[in-house]
Amino acid sequence: MSKVIFDNLTVNQALDSMANSISSSEIYMIGIQRGGARVADALQHRLQKQKVSVQRGNLDISFYRDDLDTIAPNPEVRPSKLPFDLSDKNIWLIDDVLYTGRTIRAALGEIFDYGRPASIKLAVLLDRGGRELPIAADLVGLAHQAKPEQSVKLITDPEGWFVEQRQVKS
Amino acid sequence: MPKLKIENGHVIDPANGIDKKTDLWVEDGKVTAIGKHSGTADQIIDAAGKIVCPGLIDMHVHLREPGQEWKEDIESGSRAAVAGGITSMCCMPNTGPHIDHAGIARQIIERSDQVGLCNVHPIGAVTKNLNGKELTEMRELTRAGCVAFSDDGAPIWHAGVMRKALEYSASFGYMIIQHAEELALTKDGCINEGWISTQLGVTGMPVEGEDSMISRDIMLTRRADARYHVAHISSKGGVKMVRDAKAEGLHVTTEAAPHHFALTEEEVLGFNVDAKMSPPLRTEEDRLAVIEGLRDGTIEVIATDHAPHHEDDKRCGLSCAAFGIVGLETMLPVSLGLVRDHVLSMSDMIAKMTCNPAKLLNLDSGTLSVGAEADITIFDAGATWTLDREKLVSKGKNTPWHGKKMTGQVNHTIKAGRIVYQNGQIC
Amino acid sequence: MKSLKHLFGIADLDREQIEYLVNLGDSFIDINRRSLKKAPTLRGKTVINLFFENSTRTRTSFEIAGKRLSADVINISASTSATKKGESLLDTGQTLAAMQPHVLVIRHSISGTCEFLAEHLENTAIVNAGDGAHEHPTQILTDLLTLKQAWGTPEGKTITMVGDIAHSRVARSHLLAAKKLGYKMRIVAPRTLLPAEVERYGCEVYHDFDEALPGSDAVYMLRVQSERLTDSCAFPSIREYHEAYGLNSQRLKKAGDDCLVLHPGPMNRGVEIATDVADSVKSHILAQVEHGVAIRMAVLAALCGGDGGDDGKE
């Protein structure tokens, strides 16, 4: 059982609004593989239209997860790529859906293995609630309160992006 | 001694050509009659549905005493023997000290008499210290009770020494038993050389190690006109050479161990140390050749090469584990497979572990002739049981048949008229 | 995919598991190239390298792999001879297992040591770092990662392996992997250095190196242990060995321009491989070393991980 909770139009409006909020002269943006990287791509595309200079990187946090004991490592190769020096930069960390906060915790850990930025701000397309760690986004495109037994996913279909909610076994 | 009647059993005594349902009478430790006999018995064993045959003989056993009593001793080995239906066995001289002088031979016989379960006939060493150099005093050893000579475990590798051993023993009618293995070919080897050794990455023992030694020995036997017996034959080539030597009229005989006609090298896959022995388990082709040798009479004896080892000698990885498996308690059930597969009649199979070895070694046992010592085995050829290594009577637990279903079970073992083993209990 | 409890050898892995480990290794290459070469993946895990045979490079590779994933790595060199009785092996294994490591990495001269120890040790994952002439799975996974980088996939390619096949665990593991992954193996050696019935692996057997080279996509030179060659009469002299089975640039030309050169190391320059080949652009020998760390990270991570299940993040 799945239902679309945000359609293509709503998602795009949210992305437009996020791009406008982020906008400044120079932006360092890191997307979390895979959904966060796609959101970062979408934001980058919008910002570049505004002639903003965007430095992009991607993070794969697989090896920074804290749940290796329960799942096997994922062999899909989505290497982290941070082609700029992080030191003393103001970083935007981008993800698609913010839930427990564990991914963000792992991402922060990995970023600090690469360098010491001046600041990190978090932007997420969708905050679905249910935090298990004291982590909050600085910029939220869409907000929605989902139950623990529900999964909320950003679907990046070439025909159009939308957010889907489905019932999962708790 | 009470008068014992074994009634309604299927009595098989190959030496006398008896193979029928009848009664067997025992008195004063001797067989007194087969069939109708007037008189009353003090004790009756109902052997209906069972086979009653002469007590089995295993002419190739390592009892480890003296010297390695933690692996086995004469008492534990005797108990294991009667549990397997065996009432006479020959023990190999690779003890410590070796059976290369009369004192040790006498000591072993004395000890086995004390235990009183199973006849133990020592095999004397061919060379002192089994070193392959100097001959032992074979006449003295024979007087002390040795029934044949062997350096088993250590092949007599030196052709000159082997020639002299054959010539000397031939002068007095003694038999030389050879562990046929050319050590220069089998150095560091632990299983048969072939596809299995290649896959496991362990050094193999090529079959030519056995064949070349048998070939050489047969030539020397021909010249010496000696009695030569190949221990635990395992190869197709070896069986053929013995067959040809027999056809030529040479006094060449041989024995096969149950594992060599029941198992192949595949058993070792997974680094199974309990399938490691020398000679090693070989290919299916070799196994079938051994079976054919048993069928056509080339191989006249079944003997186990019972080689008990302590856990520590085995549990250390395939290439450093000790060679050998225990066999006393599995000889009969495994060999019965030959009868089920129609390789041998029941009588012929029994002959290979009774009168045939008795004849080779000039033993009185191995028959149910009236007047003979009443060594009798009663077994159920169809009873099935599952082998549990921990329940083996032998101190050695090294068997490849652990957890396997066995068909054929010993019910009674009678030694000189006395029931020494009865339905799982040693008496 | 079946999860991994131990890594004994290629024989126990199916194609999916082999590819999983190679791909996982691929994703670890990146961490090794960063300036800060550390991820917290195995934080709180203990890895013991138990080496009964000297092998500086394999041990170092495992040690670096464990440390870069934040595991606590302990190295133990236990010198023992193949003929020494084995109680000490089992005792050593049980003693170390009682200290509750997550992974025991074992190198031993006796084939089957890992299987033997695993039978007696519970709750410890065992990794075979080379056992006798049996298997050396992490080396082969390393080679497969190197070939993946070079070719994408080894499927349909021909690897020509030269040298002491009889005593080589690398050879056996490759012969098994070739069947599972669909590449061809040619093995080149005199009969004295071939194990019995080796053709049953489905490989092509050559005695003449020059005949085997045309059509080879990679040449894999095995290390020659000179004492083993001459003591066992496998070869009359190193000089003659080099002449018959040594790889030099002249000879390599027969294999065609795109042929790669591999070697598990350490090399005997001037014996099985000439310096001009070892250091040429065709040589992927140092890439093998680099990928060795990534593969061992992958193996350790895979053995410490759970049963798999969901892909993706929270």
Structure at a glance:
The complex is a heterotrimer of chains A (170), B (427) and C (314). Chain B is α/β, with parallel strands linked by helices and 427 residues long.
Note down, in words, how this protein is organized.
- The complex is a heterotrimer of chains A (170), B (427) and C (314).
- Chain A is α/β, with parallel strands linked by helices and 170 residues long.
- Chain A is built from three helices and eight strands; from the N terminus they run βαβαββαββββ.
- In chain A, the strands form two sheets. In chain A, strands 3-2-4-5-6 form a five-stranded parallel sheet.
- The longest helix of chain A has 15 residues.
- Chain A is globular.
- The model of chain A has no long low-confidence stretch (mean pLDDT 90).
- With 427 residues, chain B is α/β, with parallel strands linked by helices.
- Chain B has one domain: TIM Barrel (Alpha-Beta Barrel), CATH 3.20.20.
- Chain B is 30% helix and 23% strand.
- In chain B, strands 1, 2, 3, 4, 5, 16, 17, 18 and 19 form a nine-stranded mixed sheet that branches. In chain B, strands 9-10-13-14-15 form a five-stranded parallel sheet, sandwiched between helices. A three-stranded parallel sheet of chain B has the order 6-7-8, with helices on both faces.
- In chain B, helix 4 packs across helix 7, helix 7 runs parallel beside helix 8 and helix 8 packs parallel to helix 10.
- The mean pLDDT of chain B is 97.
- In chain C, helix 1 crosses helix 5.
- The longest helix of chain C has 20 residues.
- Chain C is globular.
- The C terminus of chain C is likely disordered.
- Classes of the chains: A alpha/beta (170), B alpha/beta (427), C alpha/beta (314).
- At the A-C interface, helix 3 of A face helix 1 and helix 12 of C.
Q: What is the percentage of strand-forming residues of chain C? A: 5-15%
Q: What is the CA-CA span between the terminal residues of chain B? A: 16 Å
Question: Biggest sheet of chain C, strands in spatial order?
Answer: 7-6-5-8-9
Oligomeric form: heterotrimer
Largest sheet of chain C: 5 strands, parallel
**Most extensive interface, chain pair and sizes:** A-C, 30 and 36 residues
| N-to-C order of helices and strands of chain C | HEHEHEHEHEHEEHEHHHEHH
What is the CATH topology assignment of the largest domain in chain C?
Answer: Rossmann fold
Radius of gyration of chain B: 20 Å
Structural class of chain C: alpha/beta
Counted by DSSP, the helix tally of chain B is 14
Total helical elements of chain C: 12
**What proportion strand of chain B?**
15-25%
* Count of strand segments of chain B: 19
**SSE-based structural type of chain B:** alpha/beta
